[in-house]
Each structure stands twice: as C-alpha cells, then as structure tokens.
Amino acid sequence: MDDARTRTLILVAGMLLLLGAATVAVRILKRQHNSAINPAILETFRLRVHAWWILFSTLGAALLLGQGVTIVLFGLIAFWALREFITLTPTRPGDHNTLFWVFFVFTPLQFFLVGLEEYPLYSIVIPVYAFLFIPARIAFAGDHKRFLERTAKIQSGLLICVYCLSYAPALLTLGSLERPINTTGLLLFFILMVQLSDVLQYAWAQIPSRHVIVPTISPGRTWEGLLGGSISVALLGGVFWWATPFAFWLAALMSLVIALMGFAGGLTMSAIKRDRGVKDYGTLVEGHGGVLDRIDSICFAAPVFFHLTRWLLPYL
Amino acid sequence: METTITINVLALIARLLSGVSVRWVDSQPDTCQRVYFANHTSHLDALVIWSSLPAEVRARTRPVAAKDYWMAGRIRKYGATKVFNALLIDRKEIKVHQSPVDLMIKEIGNRDSLIVFPEGGRSEGLEVGEFKSGLYYLCKKRPDLEAIPVYIDNMNRILPRGRVLPVPLLTCITFGPPIWLEAGEPKVDFLARARQAVLQLKEG
Q: Does A87 contact B170 at a Cβ distance shorter than 8 Å?
C-alpha cells in the first residue's frame, strides 16, 4: 500500500512540475513582444493553464479528504454542467416539474449510488429509469408541443453531464479486496491524460498544411491535430504507466482511447453549441467559457475508460 | 438591518443559487441616485437584481415590492425588512393622500436608488407587458433620477408563475444606458420609450 502512496505522490509532484513549467512558459512568452507565437493562441493557453490550476488543486484537495468528498465534488460539477446545458436548451413551462426531478432527484441519486459502490444500480438508473420517467412526466404535464424533441434534450443533458461524468469518480471504487489497485493514481492519470489530449490536439492543429475534419462544426480541429495529439498522448500515457495498474503498452493504448473519446466529446458539444448559436456554455469565470466547455472530453472518455479498466482488471 | 458581512454573504449565496451573469451595456455601476426598471417574470427578480449590483451600490439600492407577498412568512419578511431593505407597497389599500410614488420619493431622500417593475404584475410568457404610469410620475417628480433599463433573462424558467419549486437554471441580467424624462414628453411616449429600452437589451 505504501508503494501506491509513493507513486501517487510522485504523480502529483510530476503534475505540479508540469503546471509550474506551463505557468512560467506563459509568463516568459507574454513578456516577449514580437514573438513568433500568435497572441490569441497564447491567451487561450494562458486561460487553459489557469483553469488547470483550479481543476487540479480542487481535485487534489478533494482526494486528500477522501473518496466521499471527491464524489460530492464531481456531483457538484455535474450539477453545474447540467445547469449550463439546460439553460441553453429551450424548454417549455410544461417541463418545469420534470426538470425539478432531473436536478434534485436523479443527479444526487446517481452520485449517491456511486458512493455506495452499487455498480448494478448506478449503471442503469439514468439510462433506463430516468429515460422512462422523463417522457412520462412531461406527458403527465399535458403539453405535447415538440414532445419528442424536448424529451430528448432533457435526456441528453442528464446522460452527458451527470451519468457519463459520474464514471470519473467511480474509478475510485474499482479494484477489490483480492485485487486492490491504486485508484487515486488511476483517477489522476485519467484526468491528466484527458487534459493533455485536449491541449496537445490544439497544439498540433497549429502546424501548417491544415486538413480540417469537420469545417461546418469545428474549424479548429484538424487531422494533424487529431493524429499528432493522440500519438503524443499515447506516448505520454506510456511514460506514466507506473501510476496505473496497466503495463507500459496498455497504458499507452488506454491513453489513445482517452484521446479519441475526448476528441469525440469536444466535437459533439461543439455541434450542440453551434446549433444553439453560442461559443461557450457559460460564464462562471470571465473568459473561461463554462464548466461544460472544460469537461466535455471528460464526460465522453470517462465511461469508456471505466468499463475498459473494469473489464481488464481480472487479467492484469 | 443586518451587518454588512451578513448582507454580502447572503448576496453571494443569491448570486450562486441564481447562477447570474451580469452585463453592463454602455452603462456603469454608480452610487448616484437611480431608478432601475426591469421586466418582471418571477418573485425572485428583485432579489437577483439587488444581488448583482456591486456591494457599495447595493447598500443604497432598495427594491420596491408588494407588501402582501413579502410580509407573508418569516423568511420573506426577514429578507425584505432586514436584508435588502425593500420598500413595501400596500397593493390592497392605496391611500389617497399618500400615493406609492410619493412614498418612494419620501423614502429615498437624496441618497437611495430604487428597483421597480413597471409592468405591475409578473408577465405570463416571454412578452414584456405594457408599462404602468408609476415610472412616469416618479421621473416627473424627480427628473434628476437616472432611469436605468434592466433586462432579466431566464428567470421565468427558473420560477414560473404559480410554481413553488425553482429549477436551478442560469440567469443573465443586462443593465443598459440611462434614460431621462424629456421636458414636456407625454406619458404614453415616455412609457413606450422606457419599455423599448428594456426590450433592446434582450437582443444585445
């Protein structure tokens, strides 16, 4: 067990070093006047680094205070992300009571069940029971205008912001008495890889000869960015293999999956934003976009990473 | 009145709960005497506008609210009298010798600002209703007041008319540039201009 603690501490120290280096790099580049780097890109990166400090210090504090606190922290993040999602989604007065259930019953219930480590329940409560409850409750309210559309919007919000995100703290509940694993390291590894994949895909997309993947949705995402970013993340994931239960090659492969899912998450949420005609989901901190803008890739990568790890654990 | 710290903490909680984002369009927060006039869709409107003002402005700003609603129940009463120091208007028996406008002018003296909802009641849907004449008389008797239009977005989804349970969506409050009553401007024209000033913030 002490071995696991040492590895977690090394991982945390490594992350602090990375963050510190990024902060210093931004400061130095900002001071140089006619540098080769586009000031807009530098500003995006500066805001990113700022958001990382908030993200990792909050997560670190929560992990120190224990599994329960970490699960509550993710519950609050999910609640806020769902707020941003539903705010941007047009609903009708007939949806009011349904939304009340979604915010104050299903969201806390999901994280409560994760806290109880009731995998058979928390893996189906939202995709099955909330899925059936939402249209029934809307029908009961009696407003049938654009019925299926409203139902689908509320269901999607709940699934993406709450259900999918809850798999990130659920990583802490993996492992068993016979096969204990360093779950704190696993969660930190996961969040670190998602964030690195976001920023490395962005960085690789800056190189010339751009081949935009979906110009109508996200002109900033290129094939160069996706390939370069994913391969770099896979290599970095391999470098951090010792923080996970995986061997070197498996840690690299898992990181590749995280990068691809993170890409899918960012692209999907961009499509929703574009449809609603906005750039960001919220304005909690000026210039940072919303919480949902920062966690979209975590939401998509978390369930896949969780299930792959859960499935692979007996063979490791 | 409660201490400043209690009030600031309560205002912060109100801001977090309503998730409000505040925009000042061609306008700046100021402690000069003003009348903020806003569209009205929810019981929480006054509270949210009040909490989104900077602390020193907030300390001098009093929402005008209906006595019958805000004196019912201990929490509402505490909030209205001890925290945001509301100016409560009795809707049921309006006295002839002291109209609500006279009361407002007397209460604010030469220091405080007001938050008013010129639609009278809360509007039903997304439309902003016609303005009642109180705002006109207020500006006529105190032409030095800056009238600041305020548009509240989304509050009607958070706590619609007739509902008890709020849904925690995010609100956006926009403060616009001041307008004044012009010399000899007819009542109808001024009220239409004021309403238009609020509606303009909706688009921006």
A: yes
Domain holding A59, by residue range, is 2-315
Closest partner residue to B19 among A83, A96, A97, by Cβ?
A83
Q: Cβ(A197)–Cβ(A204) under 8 Å? A: no
What tokens were used for B75? 């929490």
Structural tokens at position A300: 């998509």
The CATH code of the domain that includes B168 is: 3.40.1130.10
CA pair distance A131, A137, nearest whole angstrom: 11
Number of domains in chain A: 1
Q: Could you give phi then psi for residue B29, rounded to 5 degrees? A: -65, 140
B21 with A283: Cβ contact below 8 A:
yes
Report the range out of A305-309, B84-88, B98-102 with the highest average pLDDT. A305-309
Q: How far is A47 from chain B (nearest CA, A)?
A: 19
Q: SS3 sequence, chain A?
A: CHHHHHHHHHHHHHHHHHHHHHHHHHHHHHHCCCCCCCHHHHHHHHHHHHHHHHHHHHHHHHHHHCHHHHHHHHHHHHHHHHHHHHHHCCCCHHHHHHHHHHHHHHHHHHHHHHHCCCHHHHCCHHHHHHHHHHHHHHHHHCCCCCHHHHHHHHHHHHHHHHHHHHHHHHHHHCCCCCCCCCHHHHHHHHHHHHHHHHHHHHHHCCCCCCCECCCCCCCCCEHHHHHHHHHHHHHHHHHCHHHCCCCHHHHHHHHHHHHHHHHHHHHHHHHHHHHHCCCCCCCCCCCCCCHHHHHHHHHHHHHHHHHHHHHHHHHC
Q: How far apart are CA A24 and CA A239, in angstroms?
A: 23
Residue B93 structural domain:
4-203
What is the tens place of the pLDDT at every residue in B33-50?
999 999 988 888 888 899
ipTM > 0.85 (yes/no)? no
Nearest CA to CA, how far is B182 from chain A (Å)?
Answer: 37
Whether A83 and B160 lie within 8 Å, measured CB to CB: no
Show pLDDT as tens, one digit a residue, over chain A (316 residues): 567 888 888 888 888 898 999 899 888 888 876 666 777 788 888 888 888 898 899 999 999 899 999 999 999 999 999 999 998 888 888 899 999 999 999 999 999 999 999 999 999 999 999 999 999 999 999 989 999 999 999 999 999 999 999 999 999 999 887 888 889 999 999 999 999 999 999 889 888 877 899 989 888 899 999 999 999 999 999 999 998 999 999 999 999 999 999 999 999 999 988 888 776 766 544 445 688 888 999 999 999 999 999 999 988 8
Domain total in chain B? 1
Q: What is the β-pairing status of strands B172-175 and B146-153?
A: antiparallel
Please state, as a whole number, how many other Cβ atoms lie within 10 Å of the Cβ of residue B111: 8
For residue B168, give the nearest of A83, A93, A97 by CB distance.
A83
